[in-house]
Amino acid sequence: MNDEQELRDRFEAITVPPSRLEVDALVAAGRRRTFLRRSGQAAGGVALATGLLVAVPTMVIGRPGPPEPITASPGPAGTVAKSCGGAALRVPAGVKGASANGVDPTGRYIIGHYFQGQDFRPLLWTDGVPRKLPLEAPSMQLNSVNANGVAAGLAEGPNIEYAFRYENGKYTRLRTPPGKWHVYPYPMMNAAGDVVMNAEPQGKSGGADGIALLWEAGSTTPITLPLPGNANVYDITDDGLIVGGLFEDGGAHTPYVWDRTGRGRELKVAPGLTSAAYSAEGDWATGGLWPESGSGTPALWNLRTGKFTELPGQGPGDVVNSDGWVLAAHELIRDNQKVTLVAPKDQNSAALGLSDTGLVVGHTLDNDDTILAPRSWQC
């Protein structure tokens, strides 16, 4: 097991509300090493979810192959839990160590990366065809993409750290307020191209003196959102709703949704649980729930009705689509049931991205948790 996998396993083992300090330190270490993904996002960084995984793919020639057959197995109370067939994704010639880690709501655009040493090299699949993207910094990663093929991501290197948009072959740097800032965890974007992210003064950690930023579509100048000082934001819907949470004593406490004027409302959870919301799409948001002791679980909220559902599984909900499907701990949860993502014999699946069309992207691993290939599943 390499250092990065050990870091990843430590992070996945977190079962209490992630503190801003702890998560920030883990993410910084992950960025300095090799692998990173959006999963289990948490203040001051991402758990990734977020947000920390990759792939070492086998080369696939031509378009993705035919999916494995879809099977079905009986679920509780007479319901049926389906399994989704998958196919390996192509990678550009000469690329090794690639990962698919996100997809736009239509399923047309898939984002990912491969590595040069410890630096990220961005990949973009369009209708299944992969392409290496140009570089403007030593390390560049894509974190979100919309239905227009516009992506947002992070650029890093010695004395370099900034968020960007990528559109039509061009990177545009998203500026921060005057001064020196550390941006975290990842820039998240809606259909229009609005981007949200947090920032804290360089030299600070754990979200200390942090602010929440919004870059409106077409603008590189940030708006500092008028939110409480203990707020962190993680995603923005096409309607402009921003989800995140309030933190107390360095830990996630109360899930919240705000509009861009700062007017907000608390997302309800069961008594005795702390929580934060990490992803939103349409009427739905997902995040994590943590009791005073024991393991955390995924949460699902209907932003229109306020209904709250505690989902099966472990860890926070990382990604949600407009139908309320959720990815948590690299697994798909649909209609309150886990759905099997079919993998080749002696391989395991890990889901990282989810579209509104039911397309899931991620990768496969062997039984020793070695990443094998970027993959998609149609559910």
General description of the model:
α1 runs antiparallel to α2 (20-32). This protein has a single domain (3-378), classed as Methylamine Dehydrogenase, Chain H (7 Propeller), CATH 2.130.10.10. The chain has helices spanning 3-12, 20-32; strands spanning 41-42, 45-46, 72-74, 80-88, 99-103, 109-116, 119-126, 129-132, 139-145, 151-157, 160-167, 170-174, 181-189, 195-201, 211-215, 223-224, 231-236, 242-248, 251-258, 264-266, 274-281, 284-290, 297-302, 308-310, 317-320, 326-328, 331-334, 337-341, 348-354, 359-365, 371-378. The protein has 379 residues and is mostly beta strands. The chain contains 2 helices and 31 strands. The strands form 7 sheets. Strands 3, 4, 25, 26, 27, 28, 29, 30 and 31 form a 9-stranded mixed beta sheet that branches. The protein has a 4-stranded antiparallel beta sheet with strand order 5-6-7-8, with no helix packed on it. Strands 9-10-11-12 form a 4-stranded antiparallel beta sheet, with no helix packed on it. The radius of gyration is 19 Å and the shape is globular. Residues 1-80 have low confidence and may be disordered.
